[in-house]
Amino acid sequence: MGRARNFKLVQVLGDDAIGREGRANASDHLDVRLWLRLLSCSTQIEQVIRTQLRLQHGTTLSRFDYLAQLERHPDGLRMNALSRFLMVTGGNVTGLTDQLVAEGWVERVADLQDRRSQTVRLTPEGRVQFLRMAADHEAWLTQMFSGFDSQNKDLLYELLGHLRVHLARPAPEDTP
C-alpha cells in the first residue's frame, strides 16, 4: 500500500491533463481528494464517450441514454417514466422524442391503460441503430479499462458498490 500512497498523478498526467483533481493537494482531507478523483475519472470517461458518439454516430450522449432506456423496455415507456429514468425534465424528453420520431427511430403509441398518456418505444430501425451504437460504446469502455486486470476491476466495482449503498442510506439528522 505504501507504493500506492506515493503515486503522484500529476507526474504521470501533467498539469494540462490533471483536470479537476488538480484542485487538490496533499494537505486536503482524503475525502476531498477521493471525491475529486472519482469526479475526474467519471468526467474523463464521459468526455471520451461523448466525443466518440458524435464522431462515429453523429449523435449525443443524451440521445444514446434515451435509446438505451427504451431498449431496456421493449414495450415502451410513458414519457413521465422516461423522464424519471433519464433524470431530466419532461420538456427535454419531449424534444428528444420529437427528434427521434422525425428520424423514424422511435414511435409514440396510445397507452392502453391510460388513453390520455402516450408510450414511446423503439422502432425496428431505432433498435438497429441503437444496437450499433451500444456495441461501439461497450468497445470504447473495454478499451478505456484495458489497463486494469479483472481482479482490480472486480475490486473497484465492489468498493464502488459499497459506496453506493452507504450513500443511499439516510444521513443522520445532525449532518447536512
TrEMBL record:
Keyword Isomerase: no
Coiled-coil ranges (or none): none
Keyword Hydrolase tagged: no
InterPro entries in the record: HTH_MarR-typ, MarR/SlyA-like, Tscrpt_reg_MarR-type_CS, WH-like_DNA-bd_sf, WH_DNA-bd_sf
Keywords, comma-separated and alphabetical: DNA-binding, Transcription, Transcription regulation
HTH marR-type domain boundaries: 31-165
Domain of life of the source: Bacteria
Protein name: MarR family transcriptional regulator
Species: Ideonella margarita
Taxonomic lineage: Bacteria, Pseudomonadati, Pseudomonadota, Betaproteobacteria, Burkholderiales
